Amino acid sequence: MEAWLGLEIGNSRLHWAWFAGEEIQETWDTPHLSRLIEQQLAQCKTFADLPQEILSPDLNTSRLSPLASRLLPIYIASVVPSQTALWQAYPEAHVISLDKISLSGIYPTLGIDRALAVLGAGEAFGFPVLVIDAGTALTFTGADGDRCLVGGAILSGLSLQLQSLGQQTANLPSITTPEILFLPERWAMNTSEAIQSGVIYTLIASIRDFVTAWWEKFPDSQICFKGGDGKLLLEYLRSLHPEFTDRKIMYEPNLTFWGMRSYLQSFQ
Ligand SMILES: Nc1ncnc2c1ncn2[C@@H]1O[C@H](COP(=O)(O)OP(=O)(O)OP(=O)(O)O)[C@@H](O)[C@H]1O
Ligand SMILES: CC(C)(CO)[C@@H](O)C(=O)NCCC(=O)O
Ligand SMILES: [K+]
């Protein structure tokens, strides 16, 4: 089984998956790379030459050691052109572009992360499917039973909403997502919880509205959450609306990587 790396470049950070053929072995996240690393990427001859910055401290690198003497292909799905540019120098970098994705009805500026995630979800659970990516931006992306893009929506994600409130006002603190330990009181009595209440209850209401509208169109469709805040938001959606607990709605962090796998299979 050939080894390869999947790299999803998001607006906040990099998401990595190490594949042996079609199986994901490990996944991890790292910060964006600095421009200083470009030279090192250009000179990579084996896996061992790759900068340490791309490996996670939790990664069991001894499992990777059989790969050390080879240069692994890296398949890249990026929505951050300046970060994509750094990889141009790496001899085995393959940037995935929208034109080779097997979905119809795509518009030219659709994010490759959205296209791959909806493809990966549809391949795994069947079409029609709706993906809710709770990342830096929160996106809804749906495809119908003919693998045709239905469309979707883009709004500010959880962190971005909290951060922009803090940055653009004199008296409001910037709350970070690790500070959100529980579902706040809706009618909050302090500033921090009032911000959390405003952002979280409106986000959940928006998500519920999109989910309901999707199921009106496609009643039996699977809905998948992904992204850094996906697990938390699905948990809150379910605790506020228990009727969603038994429905076809789940969290699956690797949808974009599944989309990459299916993209690669389409060339075999
Ligand atoms: N260690 C972490 N670092 C950064 N964000 C984190 C972390 N853990 C959880 N998060 C949450 O993940 C969210 C970012 O999600 P994610 O990492 O999926 O975004 P992204 O893929 O970089 O962005 P996008 O795909 O929207 O361009 C933030 O809103 C934050 O609350
Ligand atoms: C919306 C984001 C930022 C989500 O990562 C990304 O998919 C993107 O840059 N999309 C381009 C615009 C679009 O999808 O219509
Ligand atoms: K921008």
TrEMBL record:
- UniProt cofactor note: A monovalent cation. Ammonium or potassium.
Q: Which pathway does the record list?
A: Cofactor biosynthesis; coenzyme A biosynthesis; CoA from (R)-pantothenate: step 1/5
Q: Does the keyword Transcription regulation apply?
A: no
Cellular compartment(s): Cytoplasm
UniProt enzyme class: transferase
Keywords on record: ATP-binding, Coenzyme A biosynthesis, Cytoplasm, Kinase, Metal-binding, Nucleotide-binding, Potassium, Transferase
Q: GO molecular function terms here?
A: ATP binding; metal ion binding; pantothenate kinase activity
Sites where the protein binds ATP: 8-15, 136
Q: Which GO terms describe its biological process?
A: coenzyme A biosynthetic process
> Which residues participate in substrate binding?
107, 111-114, 191
Q: Which residues bind K(+)?
A: 133
Quote the subunit structure annotation.
Answer: Homodimer.
Q: What does this protein do?
A: Catalyzes the phosphorylation of pantothenate (Pan), the first step in CoA biosynthesis.
The name this protein goes by in its record = Type III pantothenate kinase
Name the source organism: Chroococcidiopsis cubana SAG 39.79
Gene designation: coaX
